[in-house]
Automatic annotation (TrEMBL):
Tagged with keyword Oxidoreductase: yes
Family, as annotated: Belongs to the isocitrate and isopropylmalate dehydrogenases family.
Name of the protein in its database record: Isocitrate dehydrogenase
Domain Isopropylmalate dehydrogenase-like intervals: 5-331
Keywords assigned: Oxidoreductase
SMART domains, per the entry: Iso_dh
UniProt GO BP: isocitrate metabolic process; tricarboxylic acid cycle
InterPro entries documented for this protein: IsoCit/isopropylmalate_DH_CS (IPR019818), IsoPropMal-DH-like_dom (IPR024084)
GO MF, one annotated term: NAD binding
Length: 335
């Protein structure tokens, strides 16, 4: 049987450090993968003259699965987000952002376990109709929601809930004001909910959802929503468990998936052995779950839990004084 091949994009800034940490952890837990390394972001711009080289796209197409570090998209006109480009190119319609509390972090809450399922290809981020008037006094953009796109993401959320033994799905929307786009999303979500009588269904307007997440986050289990709201809510959820350093992300399509750290490339601490690799290690855990390697995924989660809970060689953002390599070593010893 041939080995699973995975495209690895080390990324910019702290990316190479934390990806290296994740690969050590995967090796330690017995994952015998073959890796194809590819460039994207600023490092690709330097090496190939473009942010997202064709060779990288070809490797993702070939292996259908990728693990990536944070990428930097230069600010300014002419540069579209590399992440958005990847999601469009490979039709990665579902963005999965789980957050789990680890004892030992400086988070404000305990026992949080929420998954945000965000539609990844439509809505305000689809880039349609972006116009700025010649005198710069007016700007416009279009949001597009399709019945197919809405149904696909809501079904994904309910199937995930059913598969993982979760009890409740909350549809987050703004249909009271955005009657066309958000209205269609909510209408389709209500239709889909009827097919899953075994799962509790609730709906919440996005501004209220933000308040409720801060006041009583334990009422949430699975959140499903559109692109823009999902981007904002998933970062809010990360804040409940200690920040983006604790939050992984998966972008999943029909036959392709990209797993990533969701935080930025933190150029100020790049190469200084200071970064917390937890986000990308948890992204690797998501990758293992996608590959139906639940045993290995669980081992890594438990080892992470122990390291963070005991404060053994943790990084500064977790209240420790150690760096990436010490933290990784503590994990490897437990594995």
């Amino acid at each position: 049987m041939s080995k699973q091949r995975i495209t690895v994009i080390r990324g910019d800034g702290i990316g190479p450090d934390i990806i290296d940490s994740a690969l050590q952890v995967l090796a330690k837990v017995g994952c015998d993968f073959e890796y194809d390394f590819a460039d994207a972001g600023l490092v690709a711009l330097e090496n190939h003259g473009e942010l997202l080289p064709q060779t990288t796209l070809d490797l993702i197409s070939q292996n259908r699965i990728a693990l990536k570090g944070p990428l930097t998209t230069p600010v300014g006109e002419g540069f579209t987000s590399i992440n958005v480009s990847l999601r469009k190119k490979f039709q990665l319609y579902a963005n999965l952002r789980p957050v789990i509390s680890f004892k030992g972090t400086k988070a404000r809450y305990q026992d949080i376990d929420i998954v945000t399922v965000r539609e990844n290809t439509e809505g305000m981020y689809c880039g349609l109709g972006q116009i700025v008037s010649e005198d710069g006094s007016e700007a416009q953009a279009l949001s597009k929601i399709t019945r197919v796109g809405a149904e696909r993401i809501v079904v994904y959320a309910y199937e995930l809930a059913r598969r993982d033994g979760r009890k409740k799905v909350t549809v987050v929307h703004k249909a009271n004001i955005l009657k066309s786009t958000s209205g269609l999303f909510l209408k389709v979500a209500r239709e889909v909910a009827l097919r899953y009588p075994d799962i509790e269904s609730t709906e919440m307007i996005v501004d209220n959802a933000c308040m409720q997440l801060v006041m009583n986050p334990h009422q949430f289990d699975v959140i499903v929503t559109t692109n823009l709201f999902g981007d904002i809510l998933s970062d809010l959820c990360a804040g409940l468990v200690g920040g983006l350093g604790m939050a992984p992300g998966a972008n999943i399509g029909e036959d392709c998936a990209i797993f990533e750290a969701v935080h930025g490339s933190a150029p100020d601490i790049a190469g200084k052995n200071l970064a917390n690799p937890t986000s990308v290690i948890l992204a690797a855990v998501q990758m293992l779950e996608y590959l139906k390697m639940g045993t290995e995924a669980e081992k890594i989660k438990q080892a992470l839990k122990q390291v963070i809970e005991t404060g053994d060689r943790t990084t500064r953002d977790l209240g420790g004084v150690h760096g990436t390599s010490d933290f990784t070593q503590a994990l490897l010893e437990r594995l």
